[in-house]
Amino acid sequence: MIPARFDYDVAESAAHAIELLGAGGGDTKLLAGGHSLIPALKLRIARPAKLVDIGRLSDLAYVRDGGTHVAIGALSRHAAVASNPLLAEHCPIVSYTAGQIGDPQVRHRGTLGGTLSHGDPASDLPAVMLALGAELVVQGKGGERVIPATELFTGVFETALAPDEMLVEARVPKLAASTGWAYVKANRRAQDWATVGVAALVHRDDGAVAGASIGLVNMGGTPLRARATEDALAGGSSAAEAAALVTDGTQPPSDQAGSSEYRAHLAQVITRRALEQALGN
Amino acid sequence: MRQVALTVNGMRHELELEPRELLVYVLRDRLKLTGTNVGCDTSSCGACTVLVDGESVKSCTVLGVQADGAEITTIEGLAANGSLHPVQQAFHDHHALQCGYCTPGMVMAAVSLIEHGEATSEAAIREGLEGNLCRCTGYHNIVAAVQDAAGAMGRAR
Ligand SMILES: Cc1cc2nc3c(=O)[nH]c(=O)nc-3n(C[C@H](O)[C@H](O)[C@H](O)COP(=O)(O)OP(=O)(O)OC[C@H]3O[C@@H](n4cnc5c(N)ncnc54)[C@H](O)[C@@H]3O)c2cc1C
Ligand code: FES
Ligand code: FES
User: Fold this and answer.
1) Which of A18, A127, B2, B115 matches a 20 to 30 Å C-alpha distance to A177?
2) How does the average pLDDT of chain A come out, rounded?
3) Whole-model pTM?
4) Domains parsed from chain B with CATH numbers
5) What's the pLDDT score for residue B157?
6) What is the ipTM of this complex?
């Protein structure tokens, strides 16, 4: 399969990429790791007139201590995020989940900025960012702005980024030692996307559950927070009782991997597992 | 058209590429390195795996222009001075192939896994080869070969 013709330019900096995006008038796309975009080009689902390659912006491939948060550059490859010691220490749900994406070859190419900008509801890290209350730093013509993860994902393959904006950094909070976490992904074959995924953070106060934050993968057009389950846990319900409420407000899709009903059932099962795991660590 | 320089198996090539040309076809059609196979053409099977700057990638999902300036290793570049690479030797010793279609990609993925220090156990090898499909062997001998090669390469260090 060969993509349709397109022009290609290499960005020398984020500012240069934004300038090239602006000049393209909406028909230009950024190319990071290419592991969502190139398959779409080959199927000719995407037919941009021009690609701006940001894959060489190695100064945006970093993980840094930001005080209360850890800052991850948008061009960080999934493999680098998965093996990063700073994240393993302060926000292990991010590094663990990055290691669950696709397979080693995919993780050698795919980037954090790509997976967060693509807006695919089946992707793993967007739901983790949502559960964490991460902040995304976005650069445009007029400078930088910060988008909370709760406002980033607006629809299937849609985000709050303007066509001439670029995501440059994600800021994830450092988790307290009393916060338990788990990411549970159910899929049919080893390298598949999640049929359903659950990212759970459980906050404890003196050993008792004080609150929880749960992000769902592939239970609607965007990653979703499981508010009813979170409220039940904060109100003292058991993991099993709270997990039974997880489908509240969701619209699970039907596709080859599973029907809507199957996803609803699966979500309850793996939410319970995720909560038990989070409570255990 | 874009001017691109690729170093493939130690040889430098200067090429004029259309941006839409996929790396796997640059290797196969332009450089006649047909050891790298195309299986699925949809990023799933890993038959097209090569090393780009030492890391395994599926070359059907990389543009030739993205590899400008990179060092690429294909299956043809593994054997040195007339002797097989330890992973190739182990595939031979363990009969880790039947039709052989998946083998070049499987070997390249295994080389990357071992060189990154990730082939530490049978379970880690099975996980680490999840991007490579084999329709013949049932994987058993492949995993045994990679385990053996990881040991041999560790001893050689
Ligand atoms: C075989 C296979 C299996 C996979 N399995 C999984 C999986 O299990 N879980 C999962 O979550 N993902 C999976 N993926 C997707 C993978 O994680 C992609 O790498 C990721 O979704 C996109 O990142 P990228 O850097 O490759 O982006 P690209 O493909 O380069 O870009 C994707 C989109 O985002 C835009 N974009 C990229 N970077 C930026 C930026 N910094 N700012 C603004 N816009 C930007 C691009 O213009 C494009 O529209 C899989 C992919 C493949 C090929
Ligand atoms: S041909 Fe590239 S992954 Fe199958
Ligand atoms: S040996 Fe035939 S596909 Fe692997």
Assistant:
1) A127
2) 96
3) 0.97
4) 2-77 (3.10.20.30), 86-152 (1.10.150.120)
5) 64
6) 0.97
B41 alpha carbon, distance to own chain's centre: 15
Q: CB within 6 Å of ligand 2 — which residues?
A: B 38-41, 43-48, 58, 60
- A vs B: CB pairs below 8 A: 79
Domain that holds residue A117: 58-173
Distances (CA, A) of A194 to A26, B2, B4, B7, B126: 31, 38, 37, 37, 19
Q: Do residue A105 and residue B20 have CB atoms under 8 angstroms apart? A: no
**CB of B19 closer than 8 Å to CB of A51:** yes
Contacts of A107 (CB under 8 A, 6+ apart): A77, A78, A79, A82, A98, A99, A101
With contacts defined as CB-CB under 8 Å, which chain B residues touch A57? none
Residue A19 lies in a domain: yes
Sheet holding A208-217, edge to edge: A179-186, A196-205, A208-217, A224-225
Closest-CA residue, ligand 1 atom 2, reads A102
> B74 at the A interface (CB within 8 A)?
no
The lowest-confidence range among A123-132, A189-198, A236-245, B97-106 is A189-198
User: Is A193 among the domain residues?
Assistant: yes
Same domain, A77 and A169: yes
pLDDT tens profile A85-95: 999 999 999 99
Of the residues A150, A173, A196, which one is the last residue of a structural domain? A173
Selected residues 45-104 of chain A with any CB under 8 Å from a CB in chain B: 51, 53, 55, 79, 102-104
Query: Using 50, 70 and 90 to split pLDDT, how confident is the model at B62?
Result: very high
Q: Tens of pLDDT along A232-260?
A: 999 999 999 999 999 999 999 999 999 99
Residue A108: inside a domain: yes
CA dihedral A54, A57, A58, A62 (to 10 degrees): -80
On whether both A63 and A160 belong to a single domain, the answer is yes
- Ligand 3 pocket: which of B38, B134, B140, B142 to mutate (most atoms within 8 A of CB): B134
| CB atoms A191 and B131 under 8 Å | yes
Do A106 and A146 reside in the same domain of the chain? yes
User: Does residue A281 register a pLDDT over 80?
Assistant: no
Residue A2 lies inside a defined structural domain of this protein: no
Are A85 and A168 in the same domain? Answer: yes
Nearest to A229 by CA among A242, A211, A217, A210: A242
Query: Is the CB of B133 within 6 Å of ligand 3?
Result: no
Ligand 3 centre to CA of B110 (Å) is: 15
Enumerate the residues of chain B whose CB falls inside 8 A of the CB of residue A36. Answer: none
